[in-house]
Amino acid sequence: LANVTGAAATALAVSLIVAFASQTISYLVPSKMPYLITAFGESSAVTGLFLGGFGLANIAGSLASAPLQARIDRSTLVSGCFALLAAGCAFMAAAPGMWAILAGAVLIGIGTGCVTPVLMNWVASTSTPNNSGKRMGVLATACNLGQFSCTLLSGGILALGGAHSTVFAVAGAIALAGAVAVALTRRFVDDVR
User: Fold this and answer.
1) DSSP codes joined into one string, 92-135
2) What value does the mean pLDDT take over residues 119-125?
3) What is the mean pLDDT of the chain?
4) Between 88 and which of 26, 104, 111, 115 could a Cys-Cys bridge form, CB atoms 3.0 to 4.6 Å apart?
5) Contacts of 21 (CB under 8 A, 6+ apart)
6) What is residue 42's three-state secondary structure?
7) Are 149 and 24 within 8 A, CB to CB?
8) Which residues contact residue 169 at a Cβ distance below 8 angstroms, ignoring those fewer than 6 apart?
9) What is the C-alpha separation between 74 and 191, in angstroms, rounded?
């Protein structure tokens, strides 16, 4: 990856940041949603059903990604996915009832499911047959680091006295900032294909 320069380097760096952030936020659902559900007095069976809904939403987002990529420029699609992550986190943070937790999980699932193929396509579009394996490996590493970091970062918020709903509020603010940042840097996001 040392030979990556110019627009390809910028595209790769931004896609890795987006992958890390989206996976960090996405992993809040299986790691922190159960605590919100328990606070409403519901059982682990409800948690399992809601995680299943999250998984199905993730699949739906992935299936919708290809047709959306054919019609919408990359920056708008990535910003939209991050807006879904932000909305999902807002539902989880406010959580006036179980329906809000489920709605949040579904929105986060759709957003993550849709953005992941966009990132794969983006990295692939800047790759050659000789370096595509390395670049896809780095993308996978960014995703895995995001999931790993989720526990550390959310634990830090909890250690500072925050509640699980606070973790989702902070994640929602980060997702919203990500949506705005991608929209503002659309030139870097859309130019390299």
Assistant:
1) HHH-SSHHHHHHHHHHHHHHHHHHHHHHHHHHHHT--TTTHHHH
2) 89
3) 91
4) 104
5) 82, 146, 174, 175, 178
6) coil
7) yes
8) 89, 90, 93
9) 9
